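Cross-posting from the chemistry board since nobody answered there.

I work mostly on the small-molecule side, so proteins are not my area. We synthesized zinc ion and want a rough idea of how it might sit in this target. Sequence and SMILES are below. Is it possible to get a predicted 3D structure of the two together?
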Amino acid sequence: MHRRRWDLLLQSLVVFCYFLLFRNVFLSYNTHQKSADSFEIQGCTMDALVFNEQLYIDTAYPRPTLRANEAIIRPHLLGICNTDIEITHGYKGFRGVLGHEFVGTVEAATDRAWIGRRVVGEINAYCADCATSCALGGVEHCPKRTTLGIKGRDGAMAEAFALPIACLHEVPASVPDTAAVFVEPLAAALEILQAVHIRPTDRVAVVGDGKLGALIVQVVRLPGCSVTLIGRHPERWALFQRQGIACRHSSDLPPTGYDVVIDCTGQVGGLDTARQLVRPRGRLVLKSTFHHNVTLNLSALVVDEIEVIGSRCGPFAPALRLLERGLVEVEPLISAVYPLRDAVAAFAAARGQLKVMLQVSPDQK
Ligand SMILES: [Zn+2]
Ligand SMILES: [Zn+2]
């Protein structure tokens, strides 16, 4: 009897030891996972540029949390685009953190292979399984999508932000941050070549020498066609003229007769100008987004049999290749770089300049 009691005690002790061992292994695994995958441990608030009736820096904005199939990115450099400025005028009714043009480093991701990589990112977070768009390959038009800093998803103008891993593209080492930050608008410019067959023999006019026009004009010249840039800022034209692009002031319009005309002025008047320049049976590409409705004489489009093409987001991989191969020059387009905390002043400056950037944390290559 005495012996049996000792056996029982010994068995209980062994079971208890195993319990302690398993508990410690579980706790250490859990702590490791948390430190690797969760960004919250770095503090729960951050600086962010927020638009909510007005534009302001929030120094205590909640940090993003890591969700399934997503990454948390620390941006290095961000571009201010006309869409950001339009949002501050009410476009899309967006409220939250602005910004969708970025290059940054993945700080946390559910797929750990992405951690530490320098990335740019597509801005439409799609559902991946809707029958109307995603199943047909048009993920940018997924009806359930959120769009970085534009629709239903906080943007990149903060110390950190979240984006699905499926949207990320690693930046080649040879492309510096100051070039990679242009990938999103450069992809949007390339979308014109995706949608419109521009023949080497075509005469092409780009109306608008602003932020997007400066990229579009360099992209549409690639097939070797004749390209004319029409704008209001002769001080910006030297770069384009060196590339063989004819530049004309909008007060001195060339005669009509262009095969393809692209409006990227962001101005109602620019669309009228673009319309006037297209030849009958020519093609008119619309790149401007407005927060209000715009009128256009549709009967004239019918009579002249003009094809009108709307164009938005484009392919990232070819945009990265253009930068890698030096086929477009983007760094001369940077007019100023502001720290994130001065983002409100940067937005005020961006209205009259080519490309104003926000610096969050430098490239740590
Ligand atoms: Zn943009
Ligand atoms: Zn979908």
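Reply from a structural biologist on the board:
Welcome over. Reading the output above for you: The mean pLDDT is 89. The pocket of zinc ion (ligand 1) is lined by residues 81, 83, 100-101, 184-185 (CB under 6 Å). Happy to explain the token format if needed.
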